[in-house]
Write a structure and sequence with these properties.
The structure is a single chain. By secondary structure, the chain is an alpha+beta fold. The chain has a domain of about 60 residues. It is about 25% helix and about 35% strand. It is built from 2 helices and 4 strands. A 4-stranded antiparallel beta sheet has the order 1-2-3-4, with no helix packed on it. The longest helix has 12 residues. The protein is elongated and about 45 Å long.
């Protein structure tokens, strides 16, 4: 993927291809619900989810490590993912 301003790690490329391997990281009770944080075992991306008292996800945010995101681009397209798959197999 030549559009990266720096070279992503092989773990970051795997996560972009296969999705993340989430592990519980922290959890806390807040007024009106909970906040739980998950950490990807491969690339260290953090996911924070805000949950209602009854456990429904009300908001999700992500913190990506340097090199994970491609500058100025949104989600990967079908073609982007195909290119990643081929690259991850070689």
């Amino acid at each position: 993927m030549s559009n990266y301003p720096w070279q992503p790690t092989s773990d970051q490329l795997l996560c972009r291809d296969l999705q993340h391997s989430w592990t519980p990281y922290t959890a806390e009770r807040t007024v009106g619900g909970y906040i739980r944080r998950l950490r990807c075992e491969r690339c260290t991306t953090m996911k924070e989810q805000r949950l209602s008292e009854s456990g429904y996800i009300t908001r999700t945010s992500m913190i990506y490590p340097l090199g994970y995101l491609r500058s100025g681009e949104g989600r990967l397209t079908r073609d982007d993912r195909a290119e990643l798959r081929v690259g991850n197999m070689t």
